[in-house]
Structures are given as structure tokens and as C-alpha cells.
Design brief:
Blueprint lengths: L6 E5 L2 E6 L2 E6 L10 H12 L8 H16 L5 H5 L16
Antiparallel strand pairs: 1-2, 2-3
Length: 99
């Protein structure tokens, strides 16, 4: 059976979610994870909010990170976020680097 919405169960500081038929366990986040989850956050900003991290003030980024943490902890994100993202969109600038 394929699920359209993730299911989540809280187990203390460990979350358990079922995303697209795959069960995953993940550590819940807090505001203290702002730097360690920056790639995931920047990707979420671009994909869900249509914003680039570099376009935000520090205060706006911290406020939006709180929204990201809530979605993360509820197990509502795509599996790629929980598995880890190594690079993320940072800027809308198109770099023209010559080789």
C-alpha cells in the first residue's frame, strides 16, 4: 500500500516516519541544529518556499528554520532530507566560470 502522506510516531528525541513506503528513523531537530542541517534547510527553502538562503536576513533565516524544524520533526519531508543532502542551492546568481 502506498501512502500519500508520511506517518509519524514520536519516540522521545527519535522520530519514526514512513515516507513513500519506506520506514525511516531520524533524530529530531532543534534550533541548535541550524548549522549542521544547513544543506537540508537551504534545499527546503528553494523547493518549498522558492527562496534562496543568501537572499534572507539572519533573522528571517532563523524564523524559517523554525518552520523547517517543525516539518522535519513531524516526519513530513521527503526522504532525501532525512538521508542527508551534501550540496544545496545557495544563491540565485548564475556563476559564469570559464574553464
Amino acid at each position: 500500500m502506498q501512502l500519500k502522506e508520511p506517518i509519524h510516531v514520536y519516540c522521545g528525541a527519535i522520530g519514526l516516519a514512513q515516507v513513500h513506503g519506506k520506514k525511516i528513523k531520524f533524530d529530531e531537530l532543534s534550533k541548535d541544529d541550524y548549522f549542521s542541517k544547513n544543506n537540508e534547510f537551504a534545499t527546503w527553502l528553494k523547493e518549498k518556499k522558492k527562496l534562496f538562503f543568501s537572499d534572507l536576513s539572519s533573522e528571517a533565516a532563523r524564523d524559517l528554520f523554525s518552520d523547517f524544524v517543525k516539518e522535519w520533526n513531524k516526519g513530513k519531508l521527503d526522504i532525501q532530507y532525512y538521508e542527508g543532502i551534501t550540496t544545496a542551492p545557495r544563491s540565485s546568481h548564475a556563476w559564469n566560470i570559464k574553464k
